[in-house]
Amino acid sequence: MNTDSLFDLGGRVAIVTGGGDGIGRACCRILAAAGASVVVGDRSADKAQQTVSLIESEGGKATAVECDVLKDDRLDALVKTAVDSYGTVNILVNNAGFGGGGREKSVCDRCRLPRAGIQCKRLCSVEAVPSGCALYGGIRLWQHR
After folding, report:
1. Which of 18, 99, 112, 133 is placed for a possible disulfide with 24 were both Cys, Cβ 3.0 to 4.6 Å?
2. Tens digit of pLDDT per residue, the chain (145 long)?
């Protein structure tokens, strides 16, 4: 059985937050390998661009956007870039989070970070979902963390 058609994302557009490294970068690469055009959002413009360069070297299409998901104007820019560049948003991977990577946290950080993670996922979804729903009647949401 050929499973390639099961994972064909040709013509689809994905936004991945936190796409500059780690799991986010892996998601970007997998989506691009399956044919999606990927908008790589990350707080670090350099890391986002590194992911885009990697995707392009593998034959995929991607665009980098510097995006702190806790800032409304940056989320607007992320979704606007996807729509302006590719016409819509079909897939949203809410990967951006705070913490991880073996970094030590203070007690205060450990209390604040889960709330920030929930807030950024909600904000990103609020920005992207209307675009996907208005243009194609639906959007896939993949939550991580």
Report:
1. 18
2. 455 667 899 999 999 999 999 999 999 999 999 999 999 999 999 999 999 999 999 999 999 999 988 788 888 899 899 999 999 888 888 888 765 554 444 444 444 444 445 555 555 555 555 554 444 444 444 444 4
Gap between the Cα atoms of 85 and 121, Å rounded: 23
Report whether 13 contacts 37 (CB < 8 A).
Answer: yes
The DSSP letter of residue 14 is: E
**How far from 133 is each of 12, 36, 73, CA to CA, in Å?**
13, 18, 21
Which amino acid makes up residue 108? C
Q: How far apart are CA 119 and CA 123, in angstroms?
A: 6
Under 8 Å between Cβ of 12 and 91: yes
The answer to pTM > 0.85 is no
